[in-house]
Amino acid sequence: EMGAVLMLLGELGFIGIFMGGGAFAELAWLAPPYHYSDVPEWGALLSNVRTYARSYPWMALYPSLAFFATILGFNLLGEGMRRMVESVGIGITRLVNRYTLALALLAVLCIGWVRGNTGAVAVYRQQANAFDGQRALNHVHALADPTLEGRALGTPGMDLATDYIARQFEDLGLQPAGEDSSYFQTSYRAYESLDMIPELIIEDTGLPLQYRQDYVEYPGLNRIVGQIRGKVRFLAMGELTRGQWGDYPLLKDRDYSDEILLVSVRDIPYLERVPCGAMLVVAEGAVELGRLHTLSAREPFMSRTMPMLWIGEATADRLLRGTGYTVSKLRHMAEDLGLDEMITLPTHTTATVDVKSTVHEKLPVQQVIGHLPGRATSIEGAPIAQAAKLDDHLIVVLAQYDSPPATPDGVSYPAANDNASGVAVMLEAIRTMQATGYQPYKTFLFIAYSGEGLEEGRRISRPEVSSFLQAKPGFADTFEVEAVVELRGLGAGQGDGLTLSAGGSIRLADLFGTSAQRMGTKASRARELVDISIVFEDKKVAESGQKAPNISLGWQGWEAASRLPTDTLDSISQTKLEEAGRTLALALMTLGRETQY
């Protein structure tokens, strides 16, 4: 039947009936027009044979041979199956048994081994094995040195760190991609720093509260400065209906200006326009009270500034003493709230909150940018066919180098894993590519960036690559960003492998997952819902929105110690740096030369 269908398609194509539409093109004056089909298929090729049979008879040769070989193949397959059925029957156990399954498994393993150990991939893997975990660890030691003050925002240690990274870029042979033919691009940040340790006083018979044990400043969207003495009220809300002007009718005309609200994190967005004296936000776990954060310098919209503190559950229970409730019980009650329902509970406990701070505007920070150009010619000067028109494709590798400002008492954390490790792995990956003679066809852009504070009123959660391309004239108009790779927390973690967060790009996730497998490293995907890689097709840097598929590479569980005093050099594992670095190096080498990955 398959042979008969193909024969029918060939016959129909010969008389001009085939799949798809198309267009006609004039090959010569007074000659019949040649038809280009929208669907490239053998019948469409045969459709023009009658017109040009005398002048170009060989035009029928190739589609005819394709039809002939395929029809013959199906006929031979059908004849072989008929004979097998007649001689051995159609018992399934004759076709599928332990021998055929073993043979199929062996074939799959052989094919996988051949694909992973031959061709360009085998060369890339050998080169990626040159990644030295000890060298990466040395970079971590240099960046987490106490003299750099944790590379905290607003400290001289930031400048020392950028100078170190720029020297490494130069020594590794990267070309400057910053401003004025340098490795640096200047940006300006705003943030709020505390003038003194915040105060939280509960007017009861209990012991005084301890900063960073019982309470700490809350990193909200706006400034948290202010002072108040007032009664504490617990608030919890279910899902609220939004009004026409973005407000919530349930909270309209409510005024808690003379009170201190005890709330959970999920309720804060509802209360942005509700006047209140202060907020005490109950943390989910005690570990959150030890983390450092960069405080926002933004003035609130349609409201005034107010102090906000994060408090532990024990402190919250102390405030609720006398009401007959605990935080745990009230949380369970809040989970059962319906639409436009709210719990409001006066505690009759008086507290004092006092937060004093200073806003820093336009603090200059440096981004360190270097690029490794793609090469379309060999060392001898001969052009490389595979590299044609690939040097305008850009692979961007990012790593944040700085950390939040020091505490009011001058304490800063080493931030060894978050994120000295990311910068260290990036530097060693560059050395690996250069030392092994790897020659990319596409261009690489390596960036160590400052990710703390506000830039033009916005948090730097994920930097815009287009802003970095503005540093060097011509970059924004020359390159098409093919992929963005972000590195963070690669030297320590609670898990036993890497976590890949690819933002929906299946191609990048598969590439890094396969690279990890080939280098003997465990890797798992972060939960993602959709492949949005189609969005990036034909995108240029100057367009708005996300510029290219991106992937974040980190060690499983690295966030547990992020911004904590436990993020020290002692927690960094040379083995983890090496496994992450070799996976990164193999993936980058594949990205830099291959179009199919």
Q: How is the secondary structure organized here?
A:
Blueprint lengths: L1 H13 L7 E4 L8 E4 L4 H5 L14 H28 L3 H4 L2 H20 L1 H10 L4 H11 L12 H16 L3 E2 L7 E11 L4 E4 L12 E3 L8 E12 L18 E8 L12 E7 L25 E4 L1 H8 L6 H9 L6 E14 L1 E16 L20 E8 L15 H20 L7 E7 L4 E2 L2 E2 L5 H5 L5 H4 L1 E8 L10 E4 L4 H13 L4 E3 L24 E6 L18 H20 L4
Parallel strand pairs: 7-8, 8-9, 9-10, 13-14, 13-17, 17-20, 18-19
Antiparallel strand pairs: 1-2, 3-12, 4-12, 5-11, 6-10, 7-11, 12-14, 15-16, 18-20
Folded structure, characterized:
- By secondary structure, this protein is an alpha/beta fold.
- It contains 15 helices and 20 strands.
- It has helices spanning 2-14, 42-46, 61-88, 92-95, 98-117, 119-128, 133-143, 156-171, 313-320, 327-335, 416-435, 465-469, 475-478, 506-518, 574-593; strands at 22-25, 34-37, 175-176, 184-194, 199-202, 215-217, 226-237, 256-263, 276-282, 308-311, 342-355, 357-372, 393-400, 443-449, 454-455, 458-459, 480-487, 498-501, 523-525, 550-555.
- The strands form four sheets. Strands 3, 4, 12, 13, 14, 17, 18, 19 and 20 form a nine-stranded mixed β-sheet that branches. Strands 5-11-7-8-9-10-6 form a seven-stranded mixed β-sheet. It has a two-stranded antiparallel sheet with strand order 1-2.
- Helix 6 packs antiparallel against helix 15.
- The two termini are 37 Å apart.
- The model is unreliable at 529-546 (pLDDT under 50).
